[in-house]
Every structure is written in C-alpha cells, then in structure tokens.
C-alpha cells in the first residue's frame, strides 16, 4: 500500500528537506532531488512507520475495548433490590 501525501503536504515536506540539507550539511539540495529523496523515504521507510502507527493504534483501541465493560457496565436485575433495601 503506497503512502501518498497531499499536494500541499508533499510541497511542505520537500521544502523541509531542502532546509534540512542547507542547515545541517551546508549545501543546497534541489527541489527535484529533495522530491526524489522524499519518494524514497516514503516507499522504503514509510511502511515501517505506518505499520508501527497502526500497531500502536490497535493496542490503544484494544485497551479501550477491554475497559469498556467496566466503564459502561450496568448492574443486572436491580429492580427488586430497591424494595429489599427499604424493609427494616
């Protein structure tokens, strides 16, 4: 499953890569090279990040589902309990 970025996100990521190269390597990287690097990262490393995020989200969802029974559980057969408590 390829990881796609919106046009705006892709442009912002490319600008960020260009800035990173200039700030950390004191050399400019062109827009096309930055786009190629972004494409490589998305294709090669992106799936690992994506899969980890899915795994983390799944773990959190499972924890919430396990807690659901305790958070919203209703006591059963309580009608007659009211009357039993009123008698001295």
Describe what this molecule looks like in 3D:
The structure is a single chain. The radius of gyration is 27 Å and the shape is rod-shaped. Helix content is 77%, strand content 0%. α1 crosses α2 (31-44). The protein is mainly alpha-helical. The mean pLDDT is 92. The chain is built from four helices and no strands. The longest helix is centred in the C-terminal third of the chain and has 27 residues, at 46-72.
Key words describing this protein structure:
4 helices, 77% helix, mainly alpha, 88 residues
Ranges with pLDDT <50 over ≥5 residues? none
SSE class: mainly alpha
Instruction: Let me know the average pLDDT.
Output: 92
Give me the count of strands: 0
- Evaluate the radius of gyration: 27 Å
Number of helices: 4
- Give the SSE string: HHHH
Helix and strand arrangement:
Layout (H helix, E strand, L loop, with lengths): L6 H19 L5 H14 L1 H27 L6 H8 L2
Question: What's the short version?
Answer:
It contains four helices and no strands. It is mainly alpha-helical. The N and C termini lie far apart (about 70 Å).
């Amino acid at each position: 499953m390829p990881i796609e970025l919106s046009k705006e996100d892709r442009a912002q990521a490319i600008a960020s890569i260009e800035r990173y190269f200039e700030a950390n390597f004191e050399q400019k990287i062109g827009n096309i090279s930055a786009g190629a690097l972004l494409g490589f990262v998305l294709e090669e490393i992106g799936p690992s990040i994506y899969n980890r995020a899915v795994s983390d989200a799944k773990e959190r969802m499972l924890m919430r589902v396990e807690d659901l029974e305790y958070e919203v559980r209703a006591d059963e057969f309580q009608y007659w309990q009211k009357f039993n408590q009123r008698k001295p």
